Amino acid sequence: MILTLTLFTPLSKAQAESSGQETSFSEAELAQMLAPIALYPDSLLTHILIASTYPLEIVQAKRLQSKNKLLPTEQLMEKAEDEEWDPSVTALLAFPTVLDKLSEDLEWTQDLGDAFLQDEERMLASIQTLRHQADKADSLAEMENMSVSRVDNQIIIEPIQKEIVYVPYYDPRVVYGHWAWYNYPPVYWAPYPYYVRPPYGHFYWNSGVHISFNYYFSAFHWNKRHVVVVHHNNARHYRHHGRIVTSHGAQRWHHKPAHRRGVAYRSPAVKHRYKSHRPSTLYSKQVRQADRHAIKHASTSNKLHSKSIHTTRSTSVNNLSHYNKQIAKQREQKFANQMHHKRNMQVSDRSVNKHKVSNHQDRTQTQQRLKQASSKPSHYNRAQTRSSQKPTHKAHNSSQQNKPSHYNQVQTKASHKPTQMRSSGPSNAKTHHQKNANHKSNSQRSNSRSHTKQRD
């Protein structure tokens, strides 16, 4: 018995999840999330509800708007057409304050879209409940830029000027009067920048948005509680919501899972309805187009590869280029160190060669000095040179010239003396030389005298 209960318990939970009863939003939760936008004009509110079912495209639209803040609205819309977003997401580019809130509070945006997909009729009924509550609090009478009309007990809010849409800001804790759901207080946002409040009332206003782009292609069918759309092309001019609902080609809005771009659904029933367990053919086609676009800009040789392979390959290429840069830097540093070392070696070699050259020069100079000193004549040699250069008197007689003189005899005798006399010191040689000179002078005097006698 216990085993049977345990087997049937998970089955009952699965059935409850498939029916979507456990994941549905209550009336209090719907009023809580709709409070800050329920009093927006109908045309803008339809775009917010449709765009909330595509949260990823809202984030992408916000990034595009942040990058092109200075662009006019027309040029910004032209750029958005290349992104293939849902037309309602593209239309919100002209309302930066609304797009900021949808992009910043993604949890609230995703809950709003899931509630709209889960039960569209309950969502529109909750909007009318909040409007009637604000009407009872006499807050709608203070909307100076809006036209509030009541048709078949349905409150319709439209701009007074047909092609200028104003986005109001208000405190949901005040405009609705007494809040019936105490445990679910309304979502409160800080005041929008550059918004001004008039001396009376609870609404803040900024300059309106002039509609010159595709905007009037969706409207509420309040009696049937659903949203009606027409083709978004040629929707630049104002269209009354009644004309949109009853126009030729008008149809109930249908969710497009391709624009969901893989974001999970909250309700299992909604998952089963849109078959989110597998990507649609359109989504796969868009993924392939995005891959080809990325590959075309990155490399012309990889046109047939997927985006993930291209990302991995580009990462590896970046890592390889970074590694090559490091290797090149190391090589440059090594080359610089080698050149510095070589330069230091050259400087040291120059100093060594300079020292060798100086030593060689000193050695050469020393050798030259020694050579000069050895070739210089001594004192004895100088005396001999002077004596040999001294002139002799001419002999008047040829016989006297042939006759050996006393000096020659003395020289001959001196040459026959033993070698011991030669080995005597320089002082003895000098003395002997002086004696020979005196003897020679005496002999010359005697010769001159004898010559004089012969003449006489």
From TrEMBL:
It comes from the Bacteria. This is DUF3300 domain-containing protein. Residues 290-319, 343-456 are annotated as: Disordered. It comes from Shewanella psychropiezotolerans. Pfam families: DUF3300. InterPro entries: DUF3300. Residues 364-390, 397-429 have a biased composition (Polar residues).
